């Protein structure tokens, strides 16, 4: 990009706030939009008075505010979304924000001639057994009666809509399928992923709550790697019109990650585990047993490769969490 004005939607969230830090350090001018429904002002407060940052407390469903936030930008990084939900929560907000919010971003980008980097998710692969998960592979989504699938389906709809805006209207779009990531700014509710929750539980000497038997594996990464990949996608012409996995391809079971966190935290307390039957949280939802990204396309198109090991990411997050609790 020749000029460096960027709009980040969802700027107060885990990824958005770290992307904001990175872009400001690199000389970008950033408008950040967030309705603070889920993210936290604490994540961006240290940037509030930065001369190249402007914050708008607004909802992406409000297209007029979105348009005024986007004026003058060369790129919109669209991160604002509601994430995975349990069987006890409402699915409508997730479907509405993720589908309509994404189309609003694309409409504005078309009108103002702006590139869009859209944050999709590894959840769209669903139960696909084709490991490592490749961008061209088939997607295997579960039954519509199970609310947990609403997140994956809403992001898949966003991907199709983004592709339509690219192919039908010529809007330059990059779709990033993020695999799980965390940082000290992760939301410590279940929707922020299992690692931050386990860290809090270990530090508070509570039992680690494991869904199922913990044999399911995940490939989790540190936020700095997702931020780097996102910036590379913003800056790359090769990425336009493409779907690209981003994340870390190390694989670790949920149970082993609990043990690793306990050992790195070094609290001197014994490891306590509490196994919760999947059905108690997700009803008939079948958990994904393995989820590993194929990162070869990200390497080829963006020169991306993750730099922070899962172990180091856990160590960094525990270090910050201990400071916060001191
Ligand atoms: N963190 C991960 O591991 C991960 C994995 C896959 C995909 N993603 C995707 O990456 C993006 C960012 O994830 P994150 O972990 O930073 O999530 P997050 O929940 O920390 O951040 C999302 C932000 O969007 C804001 N938001 C929600 N609805 C909004 C609305 N209607 N208008 C304006 N702002 C709104 C929230 O307040 C929050 O600050 C999301 O689109 C998510 O689906 C994240």
Plain-language structure description:
- The protein has helices spanning 14-25, 63-70, 92-112, 149-169, 194-203, 223-235, 254-265, 278-282, 296-302, 310-325, and strands at residues 5-9, 29-34, 53-57, 75-78, 115-121, 173-178, 181-182, 208-211, 217-218, 221-222, 243-246, 252-253, 273-276.
- The protein is 38% helix and 16% strand.
- By secondary structure, the chain is α/β, with parallel strands linked by helices.
- It has a domain at 5-182 and 222-247 and 292-306: Rossmann fold (3-Layer(aba) Sandwich), CATH 3.40.50.
- The structure holds nicotinamide-adenine-dinucleotide.
- Nicotinamide-adenine-dinucleotide binds at residues 9-10, 12-16, 33-39, 59-61, 79-83, 97, 101, 119, 121, 178, 180-181, 187, 193.
> How many alpha or pi helices?
10
Distance between the termini: 43 Å
**CATH architecture title of the domain at 5-182 and 222-247 and 292-306:** 3-Layer(aba) Sandwich
Radius of gyration: 19 Å
The ligands bound in this entry are:
nicotinamide-adenine-dinucleotide
Q: Helicity level, as a percent range?
A: 25-40%
CATH homologous superfamily of the domain at 5-182 and 222-247 and 292-306?
NAD(P)-binding Rossmann-like Domain
Strand content: 15-25%
Number of strands: 13
Helix/strand/pairing class, anyone?
alpha/beta
Kindly identify the CATH topology of the domain at 5-182 and 222-247 and 292-306. Answer: Rossmann fold
Biggest beta sheet attributes: 7 strands, parallel
Instruction: List unreliable stretches of 5+ residues.
Output: none
Shape: globular
Q: Give the helices and strands as they follow along the chain.
A: EHEEHEHEHEEHEEEHEEHEHHH
Strand order of the largest sheet: 3-2-1-4-5-6-11
What is the CATH top level name of the domain at 5-182 and 222-247 and 292-306?
Alpha Beta
Provide mean pLDDT, rounded: 94
């Amino acid at each position: 990009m020749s000029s460096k004005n960027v709009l980040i939607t969802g700027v107060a969230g885990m990824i958005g706030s770290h992307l904001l830090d990175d872009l400001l350090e690199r000389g970008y001018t950033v408008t950040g939009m967030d309705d603070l429904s889920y993210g936290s002002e604490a994540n961006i407060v240290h940037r509030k008075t930065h001369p190249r940052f402007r914050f708008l407390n607004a909802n992406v469903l409000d297209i007029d505010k979105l348009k005024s936030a986007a004026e003058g930008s060369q790129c919109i990084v669209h991160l604002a979304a509601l994430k995975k939900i349990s069987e006890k929560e409402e699915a409508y907000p997730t479907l509405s924000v993720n589908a309509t919010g994404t189309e609003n971003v694309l409409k504005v980008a078309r009108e103002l001639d702006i590139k869009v980097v859209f944050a999709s998710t590894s959840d769209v692969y669903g139960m696909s057994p084709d490991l490592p998960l490749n961008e061209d592979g088939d997607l295997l989504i579960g039954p519509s009666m199970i609310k947990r699938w609403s997140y994956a389906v809403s992001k898949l709809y966003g991907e199709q809509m983004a592709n339509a805006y690219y192919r039908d209207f010529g809007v330059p779009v990059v779709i990033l399928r993020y695999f799980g990531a965390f940082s000290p700014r992760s939301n410590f509710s279940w929707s922020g992923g299992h690692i931050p929750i386990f860290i809090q539980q270990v530090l508070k000497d509570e039992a680690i709550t494991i869904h199922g038997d913990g044999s399911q594996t995940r490939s989790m990464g540190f936020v700095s790697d997702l931020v780097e990949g996102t910036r590379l996608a913003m800056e790359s012409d090769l990425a336009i019109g493409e779907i690209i996995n981003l994340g870390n391809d190390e694989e670790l079971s949920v149970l082993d990650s609990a043990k690793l966190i306990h050992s790195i935290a070094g609290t001197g307390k014994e490891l306590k585990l509490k196994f919760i039957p999947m059905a108690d949280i997700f009803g008939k939802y079948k958990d994904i047993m393995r989820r590993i990204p194929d990162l070869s396309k990200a390497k080829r198109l963006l020169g991306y490769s993750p730099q922070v090991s899962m172990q180091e990411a856990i160590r960094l997050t525990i270090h910050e969490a201990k400071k916060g609790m001191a």
